[in-house]
């Protein structure tokens, strides 16, 4: 609609939106989204005045790889999102880690409005055609095609 009406928008990533309600935590904030196939999408954030700031990510990894990264940081961490809930047992073994309950498993419209309002006050508007989605994994069709047996590889130029 914004594109058709030629009105500016404020793009907000899902990970930013998940991290925002935890903006009062003094711990490292890790929003974790279940990416299916035994993987998660995540990023790492820290509290800053008025919100959170991304310090690492966004990334795609297995829950074990995320656990290893968090262990290497050896900081207290707050894990939120549906991926944190789904793989909670994996993350609960981390020293200084807390996995939030289902209350922070999904983004809320309230937090979207608060975050968008904050960014609007800072005039972070962009034109709709400038918004580029972030894809951390190939589409399923490409993955399936690449892994099929008997599929000829790309043709070489002669």
CATH H-level name of one domain... which superfamily? ATPase, nucleotide binding domain
Low-confidence stretches: none
CATH architecture grouping of one domain: 2-Layer Sandwich
Q: In the CATH scheme, what's the topology name of one domain? A: Nucleotidyltransferase, domain 5
From the N-terminal CA to the C-terminal CA, the straight-line distance is 46 Å
Tally of helical runs: 7
**What is the radius of gyration computed over CA atoms, rounded to a whole number of angstroms?**
19 Å
User: Mean of residue pLDDT?
Assistant: 86
Strand content: 15-25%
Secondary-structure-derived class: alpha/beta
Instruction: Please tally the β strands and state the result.
Output: 5
CATH first level of one domain = Alpha Beta
Report the principal-axis shape.
Answer: globular
Report the sheet with the most strands, covering strand number, pairing sense and barrel closure: 5 strands, mixed
The strand line-up of the biggest sheet is 3-2-1-4-5
